[in-house]
Every structure is written in C-alpha cells, then in structure tokens.
Amino acid sequence: MNTNQVHIFDTTLRDGEQVPGCKLDTKQKVIIAKQLELLGVDVIEAGFPISSPGDFRSVAEIGKAVKDVIVCGLTRAVMKDIDVAAEALQTAQRPRIHTGIGVSDSHIQYKLRTTPEKIIERAVAAVKHAKTYVEDVEFYAEDAGRADNEFLARVIQAVVDAGATVLNIPDTTGYCLPQEYGAKIAYLRDNVNGIHNCILSTHCHNDLGLATANSIAGIQNGARQIECTINGIGERAGNTSLEEVVMIMRQHPSLGLYTNVNSKLLLETSHMVSESMGMMVQPNKAIVGDNAFAHSSGIHQDGVIKRRDTYEIIDPAEVGVDQSKIVLTARSGRAALAYRFKNLGYNLTKVQLDEVYQEFLSIADEKKEVEDSDLEQLMKGVAA
Ligand code: KIV
Ligand code: ZN
C-alpha cells in the first residue's frame, strides 16, 4: 500500500484521556467524537473497553454516534480483552480491534517475564482471535522504539501472516531520535513480506519533545497512519499533536502527503478538548496556543503589519484563528500603536502619534499588556 494519504488515528479519548485529572464521562466523549468526525480524522480510538464499565459504555456509544469514521477499541494480547472489545464495538459501522504486546527486552524480561518466542505466540494468537470478530485488526508492538529491529521484524512478520492489516510501531517511551525512528520504519518496510498490503502506523510519545519530528520521520519512510491527540495530550509528556502533523503536511507540499482533516476546525476542536478536560493549552503551543499568532516585539509587529508572511508561515484563517494579534507591550513600536488605534477607529496623524507614544510607553512599563480601554483613555488627552 503506497498512497499519498496519511491516515489520522486520533487517540485523544484513549491515550489522551489517560492524563491524570482529564477523565471524561460518556456524554463528553460522544460530543468530542462527533467533533473529531467533523474534523475529518480517519480513526477514533474510543477507549479500552475492558478497563472499566464506563470505558465500555463510551466505546459502544461512540460506535452508535459516528458513521463515517473507524471506531477502534484497545486491548492487550489477552483473549478476554478482545472478547470485551468486540462486544463494545458491535454498535460501530466500521469497527477496529487494536491489540498488541511489549516487544523490547525490558518489556519482555521485566514487565511480561517471558521469552521472545512466547511473545510471538501471544501476538499471533491475539491477532487470530481478533480476526474472528472483525476484519480490521491493528497490532501494536509496544516499546518498539527501544526494541531490536530484527526481533521487531519477526514479530511484525508473524502478525501480518496472522491477518493484521495495520501495524503500529510505538515509540512508547519517547526515546528515539527522528533518524533512528525513520530507519526503523524503513527496516520493517524492507524486511517484512506482505507489508506493502498493510498500513504502517506511528505512535510517538513526547518525553524528549520529539514526538512530532519522529512521526514525520515515520511518514517520510513509508508509514501512512499517524496516531496523535488534540493538543498533544497523553501519558507523561504526551503524544504527537494532531494539529502539528496536519499542518506540517499542508505547509510542506514537497512531502507529497495529505490528510483528510479540515484544518479550519483545529482551533475550535482544541478549545473543546481543553475545556472539557480542564487541561489548559500552553500559550506558546504551536498552531493552537494563544500566542501562536500573536506578535509583541516592535520589529516583528512592523514586519507583520507591512506583510503578514514576514513573520507568519501559516495564514491564521487556515486553522480557524480570526486574525493575528498585535499585542501592545513596552517592546511595541509606533507602527503597532498606530495599527491598534486604527482598529479602534482613530487615524492618528504623525504629530498625534508622537504625542501619545511617550505616554503609551509609561503605561506599558507599568502593565504587562496595554488594552483597548487604555488606548481609549489615552485618546482623551490628544489634541484634535
Ligand atoms: O504508547 C503505547 O505504546 C501505547 C500502545 C498501547 C499503543 O499507547
Ligand atoms: Zn501511547
């Protein structure tokens, strides 16, 4: 399989919801799932059905609520998990079972206390069991980022032969460098028979701040699905952020790759997830942070006012942001001040601007940000 479409697998409601304090109830999850469908993601990982009755219910309700998108349930390579996931997914029009097991030395020896051969046996048995329920079976090789590539290829070969059609290669601990992760994907693409009929998937954690870079390295080396979350939320330092990978593909046509995501809904979706989870988005977050399109230094403001793309590589309207912000601080120059006055309906002459500028600086030195109300106040003292 080698098309130019990169499938977006959203795991906000599963990996994202594992964040302490971010628990959602079924109603909230259904609302977010509908928004994700509108956004244009290809797969929604709706939960881990065996983990709790609430998660089971959420997967079943999401299955009923959405139509066009694949609904996925997570399991371990445990028969009972798979039975329960299959039951929860009965409501879904396009169900997927996501099963898997640890494949790094650390997971095999210390977490699962077993042998590499037994890992392969359990992986194959899980995939075969899942296939008795659904056609669409995705396998995850947990901690693939730290696993030996030769062993990883043996596991992936065995699950492809058993019927898995999507192969998730998680960098569970966020350890890999982009080049290393890309090489891992390329190694599998080159060493597993039949892999070209399957979709290779990235699932990168952000422990070293490399989740987005690693996901992009993955797609540059043949992966065609990215697992990600809105606002990059997820275990520990989080997952790959959906809005970042989508915009990277849009802003770099030379990659030759696209997604079905409607980028104009990114900000709205980010706000919805942040508000319902009570998890604020850092102001400097790429694409959806409050400051992503805000300019506060005089040099930058002057450039952006003259021509937006001097300091912006994305048109804010493309991601659902009304317009760039010119923030007035003590670092702002006359151009920014005149621009903000103009937005309030005052076209100042050069003399008037010189007059208010010094007063503006005194206010700005005292306040973090000068507001429209301060400008209105300033105008009262200006000679007509
Ligand atoms: O990070 C990880 O390995 C996971 C798997 C369960 C897919 O979340
Ligand atoms: Zn994960």
UniProtKB/TrEMBL annotation:
**PROSITE patterns from the xrefs?**
AIPM_HOMOCIT_SYNTH_1, AIPM_HOMOCIT_SYNTH_2, PYR_CT
Answer yes or no on keyword Transferase. yes
- Superkingdom of this entry's organism? Bacteria
EC identifiers of the protein: 2.3.3.13
What are the entry keywords?
Answer: Amino-acid biosynthesis, Branched-chain amino acid biosynthesis, Leucine biosynthesis, Manganese, Transferase
The pathway is:
Amino-acid biosynthesis; L-leucine biosynthesis; L-leucine from 3-methyl-2-oxobutanoate: step 1/4
The similarity comment for this entry is: Belongs to the alpha-IPM synthase/homocitrate synthase family. LeuA type 1 subfamily.
Q: From which source organism is this entry?
A: Neolewinella marina
Against SUPFAM superfamilies, the record matches this protein to: Aldolase
Q: What InterPro entries does the annotation carry?
A: 2-IPM_HCS-like, AIPM/Hcit_synth_CS, Aldolase_TIM, LeuA/HCS_post-cat, PYR_CT
* Any Pfam family matching the protein: HMGL-like
Q: Name one GO biological process term.
A: L-leucine biosynthetic process
Q: Name the residues that span the membrane.
A: none
The molecular function terms of the Gene Ontology recorded here are: 2-isopropylmalate synthase activity
Which residues are in the Pyruvate carboxyltransferase domain? 6-267
- The protein depicted here goes by the name 2-isopropylmalate synthase
Q: What class of enzyme is it?
A: transferase
